[in-house]
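Sorry, I am new here, but would you mind making up a protein's amino acid sequence and the tokens describing how it folds?
***
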Amino acid sequence: MSTGGLILRPMTLADVGPVYALDRLSFSLPWPERSYRYEVQENRNSRPWVVEDSSESPARIAAMLVIWLVLDEAHVATLAVHPDYRRRGLGQRLLAHGLLAAEKEGADLAYLEVRQSNLGAQALYRRFGFVVDGMRPHYYVDNGEDAILMSLRPLDPQALSALLHAGETIS
């Protein structure tokens, strides 16, 4: 299922540079580029994904997601959508795909941290059914902002599939 050249696929080593650029564009505390290399090459718990726009020349990374699968838990480590692709449902579909894949590997819950000021991300997570579990005071070192801890239990394949297939599709 492909629309408009958008392809959802596992992140590769060739994606590290563009993913790092997207991270810098999206966050005030981006991961180091070497962290993405580690996620792709070495971290056996990592499930990194990208959405690529193959209609662009050269192809462009429109969104990225890293989930860590540890036992029966899926930790959403990072999720970003390029500003040119925001408000199109890419983040929702990418997260739904990643969580469905984690559920198929045995995860029955997901959790994450999100900036207290990132209301857009919080709204996305609430759409999935994530609930607030607590706070990490002064979690973000750039400005001392608190992190909100959120979790989703259980991972419901039917609900995730509905979120994945809402709106425009990506392959």
The chain has one domain: 6-164. DSSP finds five helices and seven strands in the chain. The longest strand covers residues 60-70. Helices lie at 16-26, 33-41, 90-104, 119-128, 157-164.
